[in-house]
Amino acid sequence: MSLVFLPTSAMCAFVAALCFVASKSLPDIFGTPPPAEHQHHYAPVARVTLGWLCLYYAFLFFQSATKFAAHDHAKRAAATAKKQDAAHGALEVPSFGAFKYGNAGGRFTLTGERTAVNMLEQSVPFLGALWLHAVCISPSSAAQIGWCWLLFRAMYPAAFWMGIPILFVSTLPGYACINALVVPVAILVLS
Length: 191
What we know:
Low-confidence stretches: none
Structural class: mainly alpha
Mean pLDDT: 88
Shape: elongated
Oligomer: single chain
Strand content: under 5%
Distance between the termini: 61 Å
Helix content: over 70%
Largest sheet: none
Number of strands: 0
């Protein structure tokens, strides 16, 4: 059994958890906001945060899965080359560390790497803006914008793989969502 199974199954589990949280949030996205005195006033934003957590871990496991898969592919290619051309010697397979911490996996592992790192880079402004908007403006609109951000962020791996300009389909709407969360707060507290 290949070790790629471990991070891939964890990634799938977090994607499933994200889908579950998102399904529980459909009323938050398409419904009417609860009254302010309701004890679960911030529950929609908490569900967005749980969705973020699921996507974050799915991306981390995706990053890891790309490393294991690329290393497995290189080992299989070396074994095939050895069988086909035994006279010229075996193809050298880089160490797993070269895939995990270097650039041996090429574009495939770079996609996993950039997916995880870009998620981390964008998470601080997103989570800060999400909760500022929820507290200062509206938990309901914060949740709606937050789910939009998660949707566009979930597109990042495929968009990165396809390159520019398709990458902007994920990144630019993400920036717009963060602005939609933070600008009303800035106007409120700075005027």
